[in-house]
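User: Okay, second chain of the day. Same drill as before: sequence in, C-alpha cells out.
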Amino acid sequence: MSAEQYAEKASDIFVLSDSFLRIKELIDDESSTIDDISDVILLDPALTATVLKLANSSFFNYPGKIDTISKAVLVLGITEVYNLVIAYFTKEAFKAIDAGADYLDLFWLKSVDCALLIKFLGTHLHVANAERLFILGLLHNLGELIVKQVTPELIAKCEVNDLAELPWQKQQSILGFTYGECTAELMKLWQLPYSLFSPIRHQDQPEWYHYNVETQLLHIAKRIMHKNVVVKQTNYTDIIEADLMEELGLDNRVFTAAADFCDLERLGMLSILNPSAAMVF
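Assistant: Same drill. C-alpha cells below.
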C-alpha cells in the first residue's frame, strides 16, 4: 500500500471529534470572535484544562496567570491556541490504537522530545513565534502509529537501533515511504494547514536546501532526538549534515544545550499530554 492508502484506512479509525471540526470552522471564519472560539473550547472540560495547563507551563513562560480560554487566545494568539487544540485532539484520536501502553509511552516521549528540541532550536535562531514549531515536533511521526494499527507486523521490520541504517531509510526500503510522509497524508485528510503537514512530509529529505527553515529544523530536531534516545553512543555529526549545521549556524554546543532544555521540560510536558509516560519517566 501507498502512504495515501495507509492514511485513508487510518482516517476511518483515528477521527478528530466534532468539537475540533467546529473550532476549525470558527478559526477559518474571519468573522469569528475570540469569544466564539472560547465558547466552543469551554464545552469540552478536558480540552479546556489541557489548553490552560499548556498555556501556563514554563514552555510559554508567560509572566502572568492565564486563567481563562479567552485570555489564552488573546495572549498566545489564535494560531497558537489552535495548535494546542490540534495537539489535544490528535492525542485523543490515537487513543483508539491497538497498541500496548509501553509502546505508546515511548512513542509520545520521543514525540515530546522532538517538539521541545525544535522549539529550542527555533528560539535560538530567533525564528518568529518559535513556540508554533512545537506542534511539528509533536506530530512528526504519527505515521508510525498508522502503520502499527494497519500492518503491525511491519513495525518490527522498520525498527533500527544502530547507525547501519537510519529509521527513515529503513521505512523507505520496507514500506516504500517514510512515517513522515504517511503522517502528512493523514494530516491532509484531516484538512490541517499546509504549513503543518508540508514540513512533516519533507522532514527526511536529504536535499534540505530545497525547503524552508521549519522543515530544516524538524530535520535536525528529529535527529537529535534519535541520537539521545536510540543511538546514544554516537555523535550528532554522524546523523546531521555538516553543511546544514553550517548553513544555520548550529553546532554540538547548541545541540547539547537543546538536549539539556529537553531534559528540564520533558516531565512537565508529558504530565500534561501523556501522564502515564510521565509516571514511567
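The first helix runs from residue 3 to 11.

User: Thanks, on to the next one.
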